[in-house]
């Protein structure tokens, strides 16, 4: 992988950071805390680390919508008629107080679990918010976390041969309130359901 990056065929980003605790001088700890990171292109990552591990059934015609939050990822699965077929939520409430690297890993593991579940239950299309028009994110999940979720989802989509549909998130939080009451869902799962429906219409 490194040799292909060096060849210049792929474009990539790189950087260096130093982890410094409160009241520490970076000059005293840099040699032990220096971190070099590379932003590996998705196509190259999948080539070496994420080859297709599950073939989606040719009969897979369901849509899954996702709602990303600081303490959970919610997924709702719908059929071609827009009927709610299934829901699943993975919680990780302890991620709030974890270091950023740990919380990122927890989010990625949760999303991987949900996508594997979706594939096993006949999902072909993954609906998410359009990053060009992100909704106003509340709490500690900022735009960087939303982008991390969707970037990882793109990797998973390539691994499982799924299609990603990016939909307009406008009013999803407001509309989800009525859906939650009508369907007996919590507001986050209702939001995932709404995103799935928009993905169905978008596709």
What does this protein look like?
The strands form 2 sheets. This protein has a 5-stranded mixed β-sheet. A two-stranded antiparallel ribbon has the order 1-2. α6 (172-183) crosses α7 (187-202). It is α/β, with parallel strands linked by helices and 203 residues long. It has 7 helices and 7 strands. β3 and β4 (72-78) form a beta hairpin. The protein has 2 domains: 2-49, no CATH class; 62-202, 2-Layer Sandwich (Nucleotidyltransferase, domain 5), CATH 3.30.420.10.
Structural class: alpha/beta
Order of helices and strands: HEHEHEEEHEHEHH
Classify the oligomer. single chain
Q: What distance lies between the first and last C-alpha atoms, to the nearest angstrom?
A: 34 Å
The CATH class designation of the largest domain is: Alpha Beta
Describe the structure in brief:
The chain is an alpha/beta fold and 203 residues long.
Comma- or semicolon-separated keywords:
203 residues, alpha/beta, Nucleotidyltransferase, domain 5, five-stranded mixed beta sheet, globular
Topology diagram in text:
Elements: H1 2-7, E1 13-18, H2 26-33, E2 34-39, H3 42-49, E3 62-68, E4 72-78, E5 84-91, H4 100-120, E6 123-129, H5 143-160, E7 163-167, H6 172-183, H7 187-202
Parallel strand pairs: 3-6, 6-7
Antiparallel strand pairs: 1-2, 3-4, 4-5
């Amino acid at each position: 992988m490194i040799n292909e990056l060096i060849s210049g065929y792929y474009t990539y980003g790189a950087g260096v950071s130093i982890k410094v605790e409160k009241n520490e001088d970076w000059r005293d700890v840099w040699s032990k805390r220096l971190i070099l990171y590379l932003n590996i292109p998705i196509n190259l990552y999948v080539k070496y680390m994420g080859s297709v591990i599950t073939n989606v059934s040719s009969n897979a015609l369901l849509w899954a919508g996702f709602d990303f939050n600081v303490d959970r990822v919610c997924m709702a699965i719908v059929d071609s008629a827009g009927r709610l077929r299934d829901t699943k939520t993975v919680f990780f409430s302890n991620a709030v107080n974890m270091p950023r690297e740990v919380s990122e890993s927890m989010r990625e593991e949760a999303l991987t679990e949900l996508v594997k579940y979706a594939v096993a239950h006949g999902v072909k299309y993954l609906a998410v918010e359009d990053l060009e028009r992100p909704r106003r994110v509340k709490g500690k999940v900022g735009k960087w976390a939303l982008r991390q979720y969707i970037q990882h989802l793109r990797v998973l989509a390539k691994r499982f041969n799924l299609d990603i549909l990016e939909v307009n998130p406008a009013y999803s939080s407001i509309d989800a309130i009525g859906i939650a009451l009508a369907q007996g869902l919590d507001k986050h799962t209702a939001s995932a359901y709404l995103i799935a429906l928009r993905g169905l219409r978008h596709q």
